[in-house]
C-alpha cells in the first residue's frame, strides 16, 4: 500500500520560493520595469505631460518606410528560415542519415541560433565582403566577381542573408521535436493504403505540423523584427530599419528624441508581442494534438 505523501512544510515552500527569487528579480529589473518605462514614455512629453504626439510621429514618412522595410525583412527571413529549416530538420530526423550527423546539426544549430550581433556581422564581412574569403576565392580561382554581379553585402539582400544564419538554425531547434512527434504508425498506415511519400507529407504530416510551423514562423518574425546589433554593425545607417531608427532617436546626436524613440519601441513591442502570442497559442495547440 503506497505511503501517504507528507504535507509540504512551510520551510520547504520558502526554499522553493527563494530559488525563484533571482529569476523574478531579473525579469523585474531587465524586462518588466524597462517595458513599463517605454510604454509610459511613449505617451508623455519631456515635461511629463500626457500626449499622443509621439504616436502621431510614427506616421512620418521616414518611420513608415523603416516599418515597411522591417516588416519585409522579418517576413522574408522568417519564411525562408521556416522552409529551409524544415527541410534540414526533416533530412536529419526522417531522412535515414547517420545519427552523428543529427547530433552535429543540432549542436551547430544551438550555437548558430545565438550567434548574432557584431561577431556575426564581422564574420560575414570577412567572408562575403569586398575582400572576403569567399569573394577572393571566387574572383581568383573561378573568375567570378561578386561585386560585378550586383551583390552587395551592405544592402537588403546582404542583411537578409546574415539574418538567415541564425533564423534557419532556430527553426531546426524548434521544429525537430515536432518532427520527432510524428508517429511511425501514421507513415505505415498511409503506405498500407497506397499513399506515396509526397502524399503522406501533404495529407498527414504537414497538417499535423501546421500549428507548429505557423507558431515557429511567428517566433522567427519576432526574432528578426527586434534584431538591431547585426544590422547596425553590418549596414550602419545605410539601411533604415525600425530598430536602427529607434537607436538613432534614443542615442543619436542629431536625431535624438527619446520620447519618439519610446513610441517606436512601443510599436515594436506591439508587433513582437502579437507574434509571440501567436507562437505560444499555436505551440500549445500543436502539443495537445501530438499528445
TrEMBL record:
Organism domain of life: Bacteria
Keyword list, A-Z: Cell membrane, Membrane, Transmembrane, Transmembrane helix, Transport
GO biological process, one term: transmembrane transport
Chain ranges passing through the membrane: 65-90, 111-138, 200-221, 227-248, 260-282
Gene3D superfamilies linked to this entry: MetI-like
The species this protein was found in: Fuscibacter oryzae
Domain ABC transmembrane type-1: 67-281
Subcellular location: Cell membrane
Membrane topology: Multi-pass membrane protein
Classification via CDD domains: TM_PBP2
Alphabetized Pfam families for the sequence: BPD_transp_1
GO CC field: plasma membrane
Protein name: ABC transporter permease subunit
Family under the similarity heading: Belongs to the binding-protein-dependent transport system permease family. CysTW subfamily.
